[in-house]
Design brief:
The chain has 2 domains: about 100 residues, 2-Layer Sandwich (GMP Synthetase, Chain A, domain 3), CATH 3.30.300.20; about 100 residues, Ribosomal protein S3 C-terminal domain. Helices cover about 35% and strands about 30% of the residues. It has 6 helices and 8 strands; from the N terminus they run αβαββαβααββββα. Strands 1-2-3-4 form a 4-stranded mixed sheet. Strands 6-5-8-7 form a 4-stranded antiparallel sheet, covered by helices on one side. Strand 3, helix 3 and strand 4 form a beta-alpha-beta unit. Helix 4 packs antiparallel against helix 5.
């Protein structure tokens, strides 16, 4: 009883796919895994140091996919952004150039970054979690912040959401958990497409943990395609 599991890992191979796509020998696996972590950290650090100063406190990164082609000695990184008014065409090119140089230094291989803007950012739990974190930093009451997220969710096609916040909420000495749910959330159904994120926020009263589950819809297909055909750049691969 009380056994919890990550809803994304629970659905790998059915309604969820991996964030990294590559094969490696057992002895090379730890190094490849650490390399992926460095790529993601460098991208997030770049956004925090540059883009967040220009626009707002929103990081806006929803997903970072890494594809490695060892036989071609190349790496492709796809970044899904949820802030449509943040990146202009010139900023995209500038970010692509700077980040590509960083990847060349880190990976010592040929790297290419693809930036994709998500048309419906409020359907992504990472964006909503960052919104709640921003409200808490501004000392907005927790209940008001969560209710606003519910209102934003109702404007989308999401069928259900659950928001859970844990920690010393409101400056109380004892840590506790508060949560709110709206709509359906079939976590035990594997063919139910669930979006999930876990986010930490530093407040004047300590660190709070934000978790958001979102129910999109039921998936009829038995398996999902692990390789996104639109993501694979044939011209980039054929250059070698």
């Amino acid at each position: 009883m009380g056994q919890k599991i990550n809803p994304l890992g629970f659905r790998l191979g059915t309604t969820q796919s991996h964030h990294s796509f590559w094969f490696a020998k057992p002895k090379d696996f730890p190094a490849e895994l650490q390399e992926d972590e460095r790529i993601r950290d460098s991208i997030k650090n770049y956004v925090q140091k540059n883009l967040m100063k220009v626009s707002s406190d929103f990081e806006g990164i929803i997903r970072i996919e890494i594809h490695k082609y060892k036989e071609l000695n190349t790496t492709q990184v796809k970044i899904d952004f949820g802030r449509q008014n943040l990146l202009t065409r010139e900023e995209e090119e500038e970010k692509d150039d700077k980040e590509e140089k960083k990847k060349l230094e880190l990976l010592k291989t040929k790297a290419k970054i693809i930036i994709q803007l998500i048309p419906e950012p409020y359907e992504e739990p990472h964006i909503l979690a960052e919104y709640i974190a921003l409200q808490l930093k501004n000392r907005i009451p927790l209940g008001k912040a969560m209710q606003k997220v519910i209102e934003l969710m109702e404007e989308t096609d999401i069928k259900g959401i659950r928001i859970q916040i844990a920690g010393c909420i409101g400056g109380k000495e004892r840590a506790h958990v508060q949560w709110i749910r709206e709509g359906r959330l079939p976590l035990q159904t594997i063919r139910a497409k669930i979006k999930y994120c876990s986010y930490k926020v530093q407040t004047p009263h300590g660190v709070l943990g934000i978790k958001i589950w979102m129910f999109v819809d039921f998936v009829d297909e038995e398996f999902v395609d692990f390789v996104d055909e639109e993501f694979v750049d044939e011209e980039f691969v054929d250059e070698e």
